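Support request, please re-run this one:
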Amino acid sequence: MKKTILAVGALMMTLSANAQVKLTENNIEEVLKAMTLEEKADLCVGNGWGSMGFSNIPTGSDATLVPGAAGTTKKIERLGIPSTVLSDGPAGLRINPTRPGTDKTFYCTGFPVGTVLACTWDTPMVEELLKAMGNEVLEYGADVLLAPGQNIHRNPLCGRNFEYFSEDPILSGKMAAAYTRGVQSQGVGVSQKHFAFNNQEINRNQNIAYVNPRAAREIYLRNFEIAVKESNPWTVMSSYNQVNDSYTQQSHDLLTTILRDEWGFQGIVMTDWGNKEGTVKAVIAQNDLMEPGADNEKQRIIEAVKNGSLKEADLDRNVRNMLKYIVKTPRFKGYKYSNNPDLKAHAELVRKAATQGMVLLKNDNNALPLTGVKNVALFGINAYKSIAGGTGSGNVNKPYIRNIDEGLAAAGLNLDKTVADFYKNYIVMENSKKAMGSSAGGFGVMLGEAVIPDPAVDKAAVKAAENRNDAAVIVLGRNAGEGDDRRIEDFDLTEAERNLIMQASNYFHQAGKKVYVVMNIGGVIETASWKNYADGILLAWTPGQEVGNSVADVLTGKANPSGKLSMTFPMTIFDHPSTYNFPFDGQPAQGRGGFGGMFGGQRAKVKDIDYTNYEEGIWVGYRYFETAGKEVSYPFGFGLSYTTFAYSAPKFTVNKDGGITATITVKNTGKVAGREAVQMYVTAPAGGLDKPAKELKAFAKTKELQPGESETLTMSVNNYYLSSFNEATSAYETAAGKYTVMVGASIKDIKATGVVTVKGASYPAHKVLLPPTPVKEISMK
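Re-run finished. Output below.
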């Protein structure tokens, strides 16, 4: 009893002595020294699921600081450590739009999704646009936006590809860096996610990605490396899944050796939202913050320090990281947020930016922009219920979504009322069925709505519509989101969609009228079988809340689309090698007869569900298609314009650092103003490794060029990013020899070619993140 009294007395004396210590930017070590073990554990564990607006909000916590925010960190009042607010993205801030006790609304702008941003190929524009998003984060009282999502498009069926940028790590990394710089310029932070190998949503909490070091480092980590080095993110979010038999959030190889030791990351790492048993392993790996946080995670940390399985020095390291993060936040600095960002101004920015990421895939005989067209038969559910963005945590609570029919009507087009009423009434009926408990179609949907499948349209109705109108516009819709992946049937057109395109083509073309297809989609779909039936095809993606106005601006010529594909559109889904190691129908590969207790219970592990072999290695996207000579529907980097461009005066040189620089002059040779995204590809000498036929190494975009105007662009890559990873030496190696450098409008449309001689170099890396046994990869020989 006496010992207990003495211990309590000593603790009280320590707390009293430290009572005057309050956190500042300059006394982090002093505050750390003053913290109790319980306080240290508290700071490394979030406030709990109540932070997201659920009912179990911890008593006395700051979990309701911003209702609807994804999470918070805990405050320690006696030390002047405030709670900080973490809120979902990446297509805008996600918070609750209404709050009890006030009529004021708290809507946030629905920005273009990540894929749209990547298809702009315009990092300065992305950085400028994202300043507006960062402003909303700041003015609504959040400290960190949980974005950008930047996993590689390993396969078109990944449910969250819309959030992500590209199948190429250079383009993805550069876009993520621009996104980060834009948001963080406003004094708030980002969380680059999902680190790493979160390339499928099915069983994402447990799935093990088995991947060899070369593919890991060249494809799936290089984009994160670029973004970390070029934008200094405040935070990185570790993913749910495992890689090579270790959860990413518990991988010292990934979170310390690679992220910090090799790349120089200075911020904090937080978990994706969950509660895994290996909390102590996560702390040791230098995963600083457990989100959303639970009391048992705190207790695991405390008990581990007491029993010696966790060194308090390791915990102190993470607490130090947390304190360094906290002192940067607006909440620590006492920023008085307004709850009143300029949503109207931001909507205008979104409307314009979206047109720069839309891709004109087809424009036979200059069918677009619309000329001599007044009356339009507008077909498709998503013309009247348009898709602004994906579902899940990335689904922003927007003030409105401007539907495509509204945008076209505002642009002065007369929309066929009979056709419009058919679709509007069908939407009402399907919504009523859903309210009665019937499904309107689609697969697993979290925080959002499933797309209503298009109904069949009688060919007599199509013929009648032709008689009344000057042209047909058909809108195809697809969406996906967090928690599930797409299926093959979502990649292919439905029978109703295919019949509608063919019938409209038949009747309208017989009458000398044109047919246009607008793809309001979140991910790649099959186009090869039907694209010849349309005169013009606009890939609008899911471009934000101004979708209707942005589409109308492009179709009518108010805006000239300058987007180019950040991924390949294959002929079929099985042309991607990764499809053979992907849950393409949402079912186990062994029999594909149901999940069979996927998330628990004792059973054999199921391929593509419990584990995924990355057997395609580095042969992802265009790297495979170009090297294999495989025909595609639309190649990487492809996109048309309403004007034409000429390339001239190419020059290729070797930089002082041993990299490559290309300069080229681009001239607008058409009749309207426009912009051109120019790409630099390289064919490297083998150097003892199999190399892709072409790899993107740099890109640039012209300003808006008036007819006859020219601009000279410069694109560079350093010696390090010319390298390939050699597993035998555990080093990035830039092979010595002659490099073919190509500048073009797409990977297939090369405008200029040169050859330069580059000196070899080797960049050693730690031999870590190894699979238990090497993955047997496909051969390209």
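Residues 250 and 278 are 7 Å apart (CA to CA). The longest strand covers residues 645-654.
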